[in-house]
Write a structure and sequence with these properties.
This protein is mainly β. The protein has three helices and 24 strands. A hairpin with a 2-residue loop joins strand 9 and strand 10.
Length: 449
């Protein structure tokens, strides 16, 4: 064990004191690593290997590890779900990236998600070893063709994300064509969601979920700054909304405008869904606004902001249509790491504050107020599954959620967060469950190499 700690210290120390350019990206296949054969730093010797000069062939490596302690009091609003000691989640990711000139690359990434002392973990928490990504790129001028298992990430992650919050990130077996020129980027993709399963090397595509999409983004537009437009088709052999189940063929069209003007930051998005659910027609929509203002205190950036969104729910159960919005594949921790409810049939009012206390320490404070958009529809989990059916409750109030987070960034390789969430149950939660208030705390240490 001491040997492994020594290796860690040597690699980490070399990384910290390296002067070579190395930018870590949220999508690790977009990491920027300078190619400099004259650099003798130990960290870069093991991170990049030159295989050939003509054509230039390089093999890059990268890794990260996130260890997280979590504690719930009254998980699922039930005092019977008691765990006085909490539990530990650990996620390790390791990638290899083979690049041949500018035209070809082969990228692979392993993921290990484990838990300690977790009572009845789910596959997102306990998935010991999996091939998370394996794809190849073929680039021809401004076109890039990508085929294989890969992470997909678009816009604000409202509809398609990597699901960073939970212990396992999500992937898709897909084919994608990417076009980029100047400020225009267009992606077309087709594939299947990869479903997490208990065990090792057994995650397979979910044939229940077939996905097709077109996503366009344009930057640098006068007045609007950045604009995105998209069309996404999701086909599912079985879906469940409130008390109904059936086959689903759902189309989503939407647009997002985002950017900054002076000290004002804005992010506005709207989407409409149509198609068929069993014998019903789909008529669902969502609209969100995220505004914030930056200001300086002692030359440090502070932020005050307000978010709000309306996410439609089914109004009349026995008519010929369903208005429940399907968030497709959103980020798992949509309203915080506690991930108590998901973005369907929801009205959310969300003021927040961000404070830069020191150059390395930040503090975040937010307050969420939740209502059901329709009293005749259920509330849903972050993965889209029904959490509580509409039952006989006529109340729309779900509850209030207060969250606070401290984030300390040692350097670009090491980050620590400490956070807490308190959920005050509203009348609907009390009508359909034991209705206990939830207390959640978590501490997270993330190392990136």
């Amino acid at each position: 064990m001491k040997k492994y700690y020594l290796i860690f210290i040597v690699v980490f120390t070399s990384a910290v004191y390296s002067q070579q350019i190395n930018e870590f990206r949220f999508l690790r296949y977009n990491d920027v690593i300078s190619i400099d054969s004259t650099n003798q730093n130990f960290y870069y010797k093991i991170k990049q290997i030159s295989i050939a000069e003509k054509p230039k062939i390089f093999l890059f490596f990268g890794a990260e590890n996130r260890i997280q302690y979590q504690y719930f009091k009254n998980e699922n609003w039930d005092e019977a779900n008691r765990d006085d000691d909490g539990f530990i989640l650990n996620r390790a990711l390791f990638y290899g990236d083979l690049k041949i000139g500018r035209s070809f690359r082969l990228f692979s990434q392993l993921q290990s998600s484990t838990s300690i002392s977790r009572l009845d973990p789910n596959p997102l928490e306990e998935n010991p070893l999996e091939l998370h990504q394996l794809f190849f790129d073929l680039r021809v001028r401004n076109l890039n063709f990508r085929i294989g298992r890969q992470e997909l990430y678009y816009g604000s992650q409202r509809l398609i994300s990597v699901r960073e919050g939970p212990n396992s990130r999500q992937a898709f077996d897909a084919a994608k064509i990417m076009y980029q020129r100047n400020n225009l980027a267009v992606d077309a993709f087709y594939g299947y969601h990869v479903k997490n399963r208990f065990g090792s090397f057994n995650d397979k595509i979910d044939s229940n979920d077939k996905l097709f999409g077109l996503y366009t983004s344009i930057k640098g537009i006068k007045y609007l700054n950045n604009i995105e437009a998209y069309f996404i088709n999701l086909q599912k052999s079985v879906s469940t909304y409130n008390t109904f189940s059936g086959q689903e063929n759902r189309n989503t069209v939407g647009s997002r405008i985002w950017g900054a003007y002076s000290n004002w930051n804005y992010d506005i998005e709207g989407a409409y869904q149509f198609g068929k659910f069993d014998t019903k027609s789909i008529k669902a929509w969502t609209f969100s606004i995220n505004n914030s203002f930056n200001y300086l205190i002692n030359k440090r950036i502070q932020k005050i902001g307000f978010k709000t969104e309306y996410i439609s729910g089914d109004k009349i159960q026995n008519d010929g249509s369903i208005e429940t919005f399907n968030p497709l594949f959103p980020r798992g921790a949509y309203f915080g790491l506690a991930a108590l409810i998901g973005p369907s049939n929801l009205i959310d009012m969300h003021p927040f504050l961000e404070f830069q206390l020191t150059q390395k320490l930040n503090f975040y404070l937010d307050y969420d107020i939740f209502w059901r958009a329709s009293k005749n529809d259920a509330i849903y989990q972050p993965n889209g599954a029904v959490l509580f059916e509409s039952s006989n409750s006529t109340s729309k109030k779900i509850g209030n959620q207060l969250g606070a987070l401290f984030e300390y960034t040692f350097n670009k390789y090491l980050n620590f967060t400490l956070e807490g969430t308190w959920f005050n149950s509203g009348s609907f939660i009390k009508d359909v469950s034991n209705g206990k208030d939830i207390l959640f705390t978590a501490s997270t240490l993330t190392l990136i190499l």
